[in-house]
Automatic annotation (TrEMBL):
Signal peptide limits: none
Protein purpose: Catalyzes the phosphorylation of ribose at O-5 in a reaction requiring ATP and magnesium. The resulting D-ribose-5-phosphate can then be used either for sythesis of nucleotides, histidine, and tryptophan, or as a component of the pentose phosphate pathway.
Pathway(s) it belongs to: Carbohydrate metabolism; D-ribose degradation; D-ribose 5-phosphate from beta-D-ribopyranose: step 2/2
Residues where substrate binds: N10, I11, D12, G38, K39, G40, A41, N42, E137, D237
GO biological process: one example: D-ribose catabolic process
Enzyme Commission number(s) of this protein: 2.7.1.15
Keywords: ATP-binding, Carbohydrate metabolism, Cytoplasm, Kinase, Magnesium, Metal-binding, Nucleotide-binding, Potassium, Transferase
Catalytic residues in the record: D237
Activity modulation notes: Activated by a monovalent cation that binds near, but not in, the active site. The most likely occupant of the site in vivo is potassium. Ion binding induces a conformational change that may alter substrate affinity.
Any one GO CC term of the record: cytoplasm
Species of provenance: Paracoccus yeei
PANTHER family, A to Z: RIBOKINASE, SUGAR KINASE
The name this protein goes by in its record: Ribokinase
Cofactor(s) essential for the protein: Mg(2+)
Amino acid sequence: MTIYNLGSINIDHVYRLAELPRAGETIHALDHALGLGGKGANQSVAAARAGARVVHLGATGPADDWVHDRLAMAGVETGAIARLPDHVTGHAIILIDRTAENCIVVHGGANVALPPEVLARGLSGIGPGDILLAQNETSLQLQAAAQARAAGARVIYSAAPFDLAALRLVLPHVSILAVNAGEARQTFAALGEDLPIEGLLITKGAEGAEYRDMATGSVLRQPAFAVKAVDTTGAGDCFAGWFAAGLDRGEDAATALRHAAAAAAIQVTRPGAGDAMPDRAEVMAFLAAQAQAKDGA
């Protein structure tokens, strides 16, 4: 089966700082790096490295060939990514302090200018057994979700950056909603906890994650693995991409959760976002080491 991802593609400018600046303050960066990011690109890379077939749907500016190359090197199919001559590639300014906390400013650029007909053409092959991933960093989420569900595919929607109006529009077409703990609280406050969806994935950072089966009411909880984080940027995207890839492989939710938690644990020990996503062999080795350590304790 195939994961189609209507997702943002950003060029990340990452600045490492002793501490995050306060309002009106100018400080010197300790380091600067350029990398691949955007919630969509991050999730595509994560899912591809987890072993899924991933078709990325989105847009960049006319230049930045290295962005397309980086996605392709990770195993993502890039033929449906449009190059828009009148727009720049989306980009993000990411500030990270010594404790791995971050703050981020994003410019949407081409991510919010994808022509509807290009999206429809890119999704023309989606069908039953496939998955559509989407996040709130692009335009045309509603069109994509409606087309995917009409074709019999499942829709996994990451409601980030959180916007209640956007969520209300797309929710009738969503199979699984992915949110962090803060976004879950905002969703419940506005819409209640009895959401009209198949499942709810809630990531909770160092506390792990949970998956709620909305049909049966059962809740699966997955603790986070203890690691020393150096950069938490993209950790939620890593989790969502790996979880989607697990479902695409036919794994049950508990297995998909465990694999996603292991992948995110590895990812946060590395600098960067999309470039830091682990592959399947790394995750399986990590889980084997965890099991061995538990048996030896």
